[in-house]
Structure formats: C-alpha cells, structure tokens
C-alpha cells in the first residue's frame, strides 16, 4: 500500500486480480484463440484505463512508464491475432514491425524502471517526495516553506471574503475544477489542518491519512467550538498579559 498514493490506496486490488483474470480465458476458451485475445485485451484495457484515471503510483514517472507498458502489451496482444491465419508477406511484415515497436516500448519502459531502482539505492530519498529528482517528479516541486506561506496567505484572503461571493465564483467553475478544489480541501483537512471532531465534513473524497500507518503521528481531535473560543479569547489574553506587564513595570519604577 505504501507504493500507492493515499487517495489511490485501493489500486493494489486490481493489480492482484488482473493476473488470474488474464489466465482465465485460456482455461475457459482453450480451443478458441480469438475469444482469448478479445478477453485478454478487454482485461488489459480496463486496468490501463483505471491506472490512467487513478494515477496511483507515488512517483509520477512510474505512472507514465506503467501506461506505456500497458499500452504496448494491449497492442501486442491485438497484433497477435494477425498470426492466427495464414497471411501474405506484406501483412506479415506489418505485424512484425508493430510487434517489434511494441516490444521496444516495453523494453524502454522497463529500462527506465531499472534506472529508477538503481538511483533509489544510490540517491536515498522518499520515492515520490519533494526531495526526489526532478526527472522522476516530471517537473519542479515548490519548496515547502514557500508553499506554506502561499497557503496561509490564501487562507487569510478567503477568510476576509464573503461566503456568497465565493459560492458564486465556485458555481461558475467547471466540474473538473470543482473536483480539484474538493480534492485540495480533502488533502488539507487530512494532512495539513489540525484535526477536528467534525473533520469528516471537510472530506469530499475517499482518502486515508498518513497517520494511519504510524500511530505516533495521530493527533487528538479538537472541537471546532473550543478552537473558535480559544481564537476569540486570544486578544483578551494578550491584553491581560500586556496590562500585567505594565503593572510590574510601574511597580519596579516606583
């Protein structure tokens, strides 16, 4: 499970089921090669689409190589149907060329995976983390301090905004942008914001927290009402401390 992203923790199940399903058509349709090819292609295509939608691996480059391998395997299985019957030399050359190209793509993707494995042994860092190589992350990852400042500034700006104004702007967004916002809110509520008793109300997507793997990372949930009361009481407490300091300072002066 640690190989997958926390919002794609379930992807291990399709990977385990894919192997037996691929072998099943060979057993059920032993004397019907076309049925075998169609069933295997359907299974591989379904898992490939699920992988492209979920993007489950923590390392972005690993998701790309997995898609390339799945695509090449599907085309290889489909091209194998050309060899079921006798074909002319021209068609045989075409089928051989496609098969060679797909096998080359698979070999290239596996070579990239081998390089990633070797680099992980030498360059020890969390796979898929911010300190990972830029090539593996398919781009630059912003610094955590810089990102925290931006998040804090954005939270302050949203707090000053009117709820109706925010609602009207959210209503104008497309469904894909809305899904990104809900994913962001779920991530912030799960990993960044302090835990609350009603934190489930901020979770729009099914995502497990990183603290689920380490009990030491779990924090005691805080009541939203108590949190607001503490926030409202902070100015009064600060004023009381200032008054106390002034009294002490005057007594020392006297």
From TrEMBL:
Keywords: Kinase, Membrane, Receptor, Transferase, Transmembrane, Transmembrane helix. The chain crosses the membrane at residues 9-29, 35-55, 67-84, 90-123. Residues 242-254 have a biased composition (Basic and acidic residues). It comes from the Eukaryota. Residues 219-254 are annotated as: Disordered. One of its GO terms (molecular function) is kinase activity. The keyword Transmembrane applies. This is Tyrosine-protein kinase ephrin type A/B receptor-like domain-containing protein. It comes from Cladocopium goreaui.
